[in-house]
């Protein structure tokens, strides 16, 4: 059975695709909705991830794009669906998780599904409906100061209730710990009581396996990538592989110069920039210069050109989240998207100058960069750290090695060590 996945951003897409590949599921990731499904069907994929950039889009736009993706996935023969959002439930005050989940449930003629953001591999757990990052409630982490999706509440039930008129319930850990049959019975009880969305507690992968089994009859689940471990009917012992492994068309990245572009202001990316700054030549992209309309792209590329032959370069707009919040009232509303455009143009210029191995930090930033590079699909390669694989690009004149890193993923030395995972 073909599993059709809709991811609300591009780093989230590679996170999910990598988790599915690790389950032995042949997975392909496409960027946006392709014109035709022929190539995907021919590839023999068992799962398809459609990566959208809908997390911070206006609600109606996010809903429409997600429904278009669902229609396409149905056309190519999918029978089960997975709406992937962030393990820190990143959303704007108006949505988009609730409205998109409602629209997908309606379109599939369902009346019930799960809300399961837990991702224990990266420290995200849900206890009594509250989302924790390691031991801190979500609203006490740097996510409170996120430039686009500040999270001021850790209670996922409440967050969902803000975003949907549908009824939201909770399956607590006491139930989850009793295993799939008990969870399924609780789903039945909630459903009979008119609950449409059940937020499900999960503390570890054992819980996610049980929840995955309990979801076996649901045509749609909504979750972070965590639930992927519970979805393989029988987890296979195959070694992890990408879509085209063993296929004569497997793209081979040509190598080329190395660069890191960081547009995330999340805590992990700040630490990674700090660790790389003493080691790599570094170009800070100044948000004030961007909003003043200075030609930051030309300046950055002129700076990078003579350095590329000697090793990786780092270009970042990254600043501590508290500084970004403090500057917010002085900068125009479209600052974040102008920075994304700037970083995307820099990425494009770097690739034209011979960069063939590129790390991009930040989900929205990755969306902008991937669009500027004309990438149509990604072949999933080796995992660098949980949720971040190397990928090979499809649709570019030659395959690039691209790592799309979620803002808060990866260890402090990620930018320094990631290259070692490349074949
Ligand atoms: N110094 C800054 N000031 C304001 N916004 C910024 C700054 N640096 C980056 N941004 C914007 O913040 C957003 C970060 O989002 P994203 O790339 O998704 O990172 P993350 O994965 O951490 O959520 C992007 O829109 C980016 O352009
Ligand atoms: O689920 C997750 O945490 C990630 O897959 C993800 O979506 C992170 O988003 P960004 O931090 O915006 O990259």
From TrEMBL:
Q: Which UniProt keywords apply?
A: ATP-binding, Carbohydrate metabolism, Kinase, Nucleotide-binding, Transferase
Pfam families, from UniProt?
NBD_C, SBD_N
Q: Which GO terms describe its molecular function?
A: kinase activity
Q: Does the keyword S-adenosyl-L-methionine apply?
A: no
EC no.? 2.7.1.217
The record ties this protein, via InterPro entries, to: 4-carb_acid_sugar_kinase_N (IPR010737), 4-carb_acid_sugar_kinase_N_sf (IPR037051), NBD_C (IPR031475), NBD_C_sf (IPR042213), OtnK (IPR050007)
State what this protein does.
Answer: Catalyzes the ATP-dependent phosphorylation of 3-oxo-tetronate to 3-oxo-tetronate 4-phosphate.
Which SUPFAM superfamilies does its entry note? YgbK-like
The name this protein carries in UniProt is: 3-oxo-tetronate kinase
Where would I find the Four-carbon acid sugar kinase N-terminal domain in this sequence? 3-230
Q: Please verify whether the record's keywords include Iron-sulfur.
A: no
Four-carbon acid sugar kinase nucleotide binding domain location is 259-415
Tell me the enzyme class: transferase
The protein's annotated catalytic reaction(s) are: 3-dehydro-D-erythronate + ATP = 3-dehydro-4-O-phospho-D-erythronate + ADP + H(+); 3-dehydro-L-erythronate + ATP = 3-dehydro-4-O-phospho-L-erythronate + ADP + H(+)
Record family assignment: Belongs to the four-carbon acid sugar kinase family.
């Amino acid at each position: 059975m073909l599993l059709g996945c809709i991811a609300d951003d591009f780093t989230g897409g590679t996170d999910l695709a990598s988790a599915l590949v690790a389950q032995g599921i042949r997975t392909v990731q496409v960027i946006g909705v392709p014109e035709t499904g022929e190539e995907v069907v021919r590839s023999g994929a068992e799962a398809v991830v459609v990566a959208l950039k809908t997390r911070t889009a206006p609600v109606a736009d996010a809903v429409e794009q997600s429904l278009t993706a669902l229609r396409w996935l149905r056309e190519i023969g999918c029978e089960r669906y997975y709406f992937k959002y962030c393990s820190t439930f990143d959303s704007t005050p108006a949505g988009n998780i609730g409205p998109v989940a409602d629209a997908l449930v309606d379109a599939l003629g369902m009346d019930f599904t799960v809300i399961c953001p837990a991702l224990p591999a990266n420290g995200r757990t849900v206890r009594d409906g509250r989302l924790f990052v390691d031991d801190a409630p979500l609203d006490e982490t740097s996510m409170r100061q996120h430039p686009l999706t500040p999270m001021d509440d850790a209670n996922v039930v409440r967050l969902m209730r803000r975003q949907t008129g549908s009824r939201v319930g909770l399956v607590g850990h006491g139930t989850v710990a009793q295993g799939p049959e008990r969870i399924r019975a609780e789903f039945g009880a909630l459903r009979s009581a008119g609950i449409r969305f059940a937020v499900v507690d999960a503390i570890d992968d054992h819980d996610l396996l049980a929840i995955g089994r309990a979801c076996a009859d649901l045509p749609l689940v909504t979750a972070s990538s965590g639930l992927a471990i519970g979805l393989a009917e029988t987890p296979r012992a195959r070694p992890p592989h990408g879509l085209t492994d063993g296929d004569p068309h497997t793209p081979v990245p040509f190598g080329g110069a190395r660069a890191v572009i960081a547009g995330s202001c999340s805590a992990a990316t700040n630490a990674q920039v700090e660790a790389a700054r003493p080691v790599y030549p570094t170009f800070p992209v100044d948000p004030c210069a961007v909003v003043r309309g200075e030609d930051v792209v030309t300046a950055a590329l002129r700076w990078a050109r003579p350095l590329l032959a000697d090793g990786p370069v780092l270009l970042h707009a990254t600043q501590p989240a508290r500084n970004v919040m403090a500057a917010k009232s002085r900068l125009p509303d479209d600052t974040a998207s102008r920075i994304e455009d700037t970083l995307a143009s820099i990425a494009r210029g770097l690739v034209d100058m011979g960069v063939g191995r590129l790390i991009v930090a930040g989900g929205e930033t990755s969306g902008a960069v991937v669009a500027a590079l004309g990438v149509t699909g990604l072949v999933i390669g080796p995992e660098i750290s949980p949720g971040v694989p190397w990928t090979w690009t499809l649709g570019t004149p030659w395959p690039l090695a691209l790592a799309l890193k979620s803002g808060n993923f990866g260890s402090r030395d990620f930018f320094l060590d990631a290259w070692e995972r490349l074949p």
